[in-house]
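#onboarding

Welcome to the new folks! Below is a worked example of what a typical request in this channel looks like: someone posts a single protein sequence, and someone else replies with the predicted structure as tokens. Don't worry about understanding the tokens yet, we'll cover that in week two.

Example request:
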Amino acid sequence: NAIGKAKGKPTGYYYPDVNASAGFEIANFNNETTRIPIYLPEFGKDVIFINVYGDSMYPKYKSGDMIGIKLTEFQYVVFGHPYVVVFDNGEVNIKYVCKGSDPQHVNLVSENTQYEPREYPLSIIRSFYAVTGCINRERM
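Example response:
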């Protein structure tokens, strides 16, 4: 049950029960029974694949799309790029990370203009995951 042509070490693993909207727990990545190997070398190495849920990043990312993400230290975050942001309370958002009002804050901005940008203190953010790519699921 792999995605892509199984050759060598997998690019990463797909976690079908993890969404970039809520319920994202780092502990889920250690559960061997709920992960599917992915072989897509163009995504890089050691990539985590999760689902997008919701419409705040529409049309760039649609609910049901699968995104590849990679843990990134805040010092390497490039403002204006999309990241999966995990908060201390376990809440997860996929947003553009932008400069905040001061160095201790960031603005999280949606692609969908129906959602207002919101500023958050870095002190309540557990981690940032850079989006390395997207696999769209076309629907009829």
